[in-house]
Amino acid sequence: MYLRRIMRSTFVVLVLLLKMLRCIASDAPWIPYNGHCFLLYRNEISWSDAQLACRKDGGDLVSIRNVEDQSFVISHYRNFWIGLSAPDQGTGYVWSDGSPVNFLHWADGQPNNKNNVESCVEFIPSNWHKTGSWNDKQCEAYNRFICQIPTATWWQGPEGG
Ligand SMILES: [Ca+2]
C-alpha cells in the first residue's frame, strides 16, 4: 500500500515535470513568456470548452494581467477567448485562473452585454492604440483561444519573473 502511494506520487511529479518541460522543449509550440507558457489553439470552440481544454493541459485560459501580457498576445492577430468572464452578473468579471482583475482593456463601447447574453470575453487584435482590445461576447460563440501554464521558478532564472 505504502509503496503504491510512493509510486503514485512519483508519477504525479513526473507528469508535472513533463508538463513544465513541454514549455521549453524546442519542438513544442508552447511559448515561454513572463513566467508562463502560452499556447494558441487554432480550432474554434465555445468559451467553456476552451476553459476545459486548457485545464486538461494543466493550465487555464490566458489571463491578461498587465500591459506586457497585452502586448504579448497582440502578436496572434486573430480574435480569441481570454480567461475573463462574468459567471455571476452580481459579482462581475473574474479571471478563470483566479488572478486579480486589476487591468482592463475594453474596446470603445464595451462591455455592452448585447441582448443581455454576453458574459465571456474575447481579445480583438485591433483598436486601442494598436495593442488590441477586449469585447464581451456570448459564451457559446466559437473562437480560437490561448492557454497558459505557470512555469516553475527554477525555469524563470535571473531574467524571469
Ligand atoms: Ca460586446
UniProtKB/TrEMBL annotation:
SMART domains: CLECT. Residues 33-148 form the C-type lectin domain. Residues 1-25 form the signal peptide. The keyword Secreted does not apply. It comes from the Eukaryota. Pfam families: Lectin_C. Keywords: Disulfide bond, Signal. This is C-type lectin domain-containing protein. It comes from Fundulus heteroclitus.
